[in-house]
Amino acid sequence: MRPASSSELLKIVRAAERNNLALALTGTLLFDKSRFVQVLEGERSSVTKLFIRISQDSRHEDIASSTLLLSGASLTGRWR
Questions:
Q1: CATH code, 6-56
Q2: CB–CB of 65/44 below 8 Å?
Q3: 30, 36 in Cβ contact below 8 A?
Q4: Full DSSP string of the chain
Q5: Taking the mean position of all CA atoms in its chain, how far away is CA 18?
Q6: Closest Cα to residue 16, out of 26, 3, 1?
Q7: What does pTM read for this prediction?
Q8: What is the residue extent of each domain of the chain?
């Protein structure tokens, strides 16, 4: 999925914020003009639930989970 404009990119960021907040997740969303990388932090079940939802969304391609890290501390701070 490649946003066509900066306003479309902002919509994606806002949707990620809403979805993360609803599941009490934090993380980071990165975009390099060709692909997104998202780091999700929170309860394992919530992260899994959102990952499955993203994976089933036809707008996304080549989805992979690269690392599962169990930690008591946030790596990304308070970004939602």
A1: 3.30.70.100
A2: no
A3: yes
A4: ---SSHHHHHHHHHHHHHHHHHTT-EEEEEE-SS-EEEEEES-HHHHHHHHHHHHH-TT--S---------SS-SSTT--
A5: 11
A6: 26
A7: 0.72
A8: 6-56
The burial of 19, by beta-carbon neighbours within 10 Å (0-12 exposed, 13-18 middle, 19 or more buried), is given as middle
Per-residue pLDDT of the chain (80 residues; tens, 9 = 90+): 678 788 999 998 999 899 899 999 988 889 988 888 888 888 889 989 999 999 998 888 888 887 766 666 666 665 55
Measured between alpha carbons, how far is 42 from 50 in angstroms, rounded to an integer? 11
Residues 30/76, Cβ–Cβ less than 8 Å: no
